[in-house]
Amino acid sequence: MAVREIVHAFLTADQPEEVFRFALERVSPVVGATFASVYLVDGASELMRLAAAYNWPHQYEPWLGEMRVRLGFGPSGEAASERRAIEIPDVFADPSLEDWQEVAAELGFRALIALPLQTGNRVLGAVTFYFADAGGFSAERRALLKIVAAQMAATAEKAALIDDLRRTNAALTESKAELEQQYLAVLEARRVKDEFLTNVTHELRTPLTAVMGYIALLQEEFSGPLTVPQRADLALARDASERLLGLIDNLLEMTTLKRGALGVQVDTFDPRDPLREAAASTRARPVSTELLLEEPAGPVPFMRSDRRKITKILAGLLSNAYKFTSDGAVTLSLEIEHGRAVYRVQDTGIGVPPTSQHLIFEEFRQLDGSLTRRYGGTGLGLALSRRLARLLGGDIELVSSAGEGASFTVEIPLEYQASEVHADVAAPPP
C-alpha cells in the first residue's frame, strides 16, 4: 500500500520534494525508521544537498538546508559513490565509525541504511534511513527500501528533465522575443528605406523633368538654330534622360506597391491593345533580333483591368528579352484561356539556369551582380512586373534552361477583382 501511494505521488506531484517527503513519511514508519533524509547531487559538484527530511530533531531544523554530504564520505556519500546499499546494523559496534558515534548519540540513532538513487548509468543522490535500535535488516525491509529508492530516483530524473525543459522553454521564449525585436527592426528598416526611396525618387524626378523640358526647348530651336551634330547630341541626352526617368518611375512604383498604396485604374479594352502598345513602345531591340507578334485573329472578349499596368508588365518582359537576346528572335503572343488573358514572351537568348530562376524576381538581384557584368540593369524590372501582375490578380511564370532561351508567361484575369490581389503585393515576405 505504501509503494502504491508513492507511485501515485510520483505520477501526480508537481515538485520532486513533495514525492520525497511523501515517500519518507509513508515508508519510515513501516520499516521502523526514526528519521530519514534524501540527498541529491548538487549539479556537477562532488557535494550532495539535502532535498527532503523526515522527523529530524527540532533543534537541527534551522541548519538542515545548509547540510552538504561529499560523495565517497560517510554512509550516504559512499552509497552514491559506490552505487550500492550501505548497511550499518550498529554504529557503536564498528570502530571505523568512531567519528559517527558522537553524532549518532546526539541525534539518537544506532543503525542506518543508505541506498543510491540511480537511473541507468547516472547517480542522482542517496536516501538514508536512521533507526533508534541496533539490528540487521530483513529481506522484506531491504526490498521495500529498494523499491522506494527506485521511485525516488525516477522522481529525481523526472524533475531534472522538467527543469531542462523549463530552461529550454525559457531560452526559446527569450530567443523568440529577440527574433520578434529583430523582425520589428527589419520592418522598421524596410519602412525607412522605402520612405527614403520614395522621397529621393520624387526629388530626382523634379529636376530631371526640368532638364528634359529644357532639352525639348532646345530641340524646338527656341534658343536659335541647331547644327546637325547638336541635334544628335540633344537626342542622345533626351534618350538618356528618358531612361533615367523610367528607372525613377519604376523605383517609385515599386515602393508604392510595397506600401499597398498603388491603385488600379480599371477600364474596358481589347486584350490585344497592351500587347501592341508594348511592342511599339519598347526600344533597345538589337538589330539582329527579330520581333514576332502572335495574337488571335478573330474577335476576343473585352478585358476589364488596368491597361497601363499590363502594358508596363509586357514592356518590362520585352525589354528583358531584348537585353539577353543579341541574335535570334523574340516572340510576343496572346491567348485567351478560361477567362484569363495569357501573354507570353519567348526569346532565343542565353536562358536562365534552373538553380538561379528563383533569384531573378527578387528586387535588385541579377544573375551576375558584379561591377564587370556584361548585362546592365538595376534588377528591378522583373520584380516590378511580377508585383504588378499579382496586383491585378495574376502572376508570371518562367520556363527556361541555360543556353536555350526563356519563356515568361503572364496570366491576368479578363475581369479584375480586388479580392484577387496577391498577399505579398502590399508587404514583402518576412
What this model shows, in words?
With about 425 residues, the chain is α+β, with helices and mostly antiparallel strands. The chain folds into three domains: about 1-165, Beta-Lactamase, CATH 3.30.450.40; about 175-260, Helix Hairpins (Orthogonal Bundle); about 265-420, Histidine kinase-like ATPase, C-terminal domain (Heat Shock Protein 90, 2-Layer Sandwich). About 45% of the residues lie in helices and about 20% in strands. The chain is built from nine helices and 13 strands. The strands form three sheets. The protein has a six-stranded antiparallel beta sheet. Strands 8-10-11-13-12 form a five-stranded mixed beta sheet, with helices on one face. Strand 12 (about 395-400) and strand 13 (about 405-415) form a beta hairpin. Helix 1 (about 1-10) packs parallel to helix 5 and helix 8 packs antiparallel against helix 9 (about 380-390). The longest helix has about 80 residues, at about 140-220. The radius of gyration is 42 Å and the shape is rod-shaped. Residues about 370-375 and about 420-430 have low confidence and may be disordered.
**At CATH's second level, what is the architecture of the largest domain?**
2-Layer Sandwich
Order of helices and strands: HHEEEHEHEEHHEHEEHEEHEE
* Share of residues in helices: 40-55%
CATH topology grouping of the largest domain: Beta-Lactamase
The CATH homologous superfamily of the largest domain is termed GAF domain
Residue runs with pLDDT of under 50 for 5 or more positions: 369-374, 420-430
